[in-house]
Design a protein that fits this description.
By secondary structure, the protein is mainly alpha-helical. The protein is built from two helices and no strands. Helix content is 90%, strand content 0%.
Length: 82
């Protein structure tokens, strides 16, 4: 959605420059590049956060399995001792 909006803005800007007969980069170009860079940085940060969350989910799952084994072993021992 954001990419479509950026493309539309860029196309409108290019069309306006062609109509006006100018082909010099506008200040808007540098602003758009800065916004793209910020967007890419935000997306990369989001991907890193998702990767970290998945790693934490994996650790949590392993701990739950191990705790279940320990609880099962602990509850089984008193019955074997009787």
């Amino acid at each position: 959605m954001i990419q479509n909006e950026l493309r539309t803005l860029r196309a409108n800007d290019l069309g306006a420059r062609l109509r006006d007969g100018t082909n010099a980069p506008s200040p808007r170009d540098s602003e758009m590049e800065e916004l793209r860079a910020q967007r890419e940085a935000a997306l990369a940060t989001g991907r890193q956060a998702e990767t970290a969350m998945q790693a934490l989910r994996n650790v949590n799952q392993r701990l739950m399995v191990e705790n279940s084994r320990l609880i099962a072993a602990d509850t089984a021992e008193p019955m074997n001792n009787q």
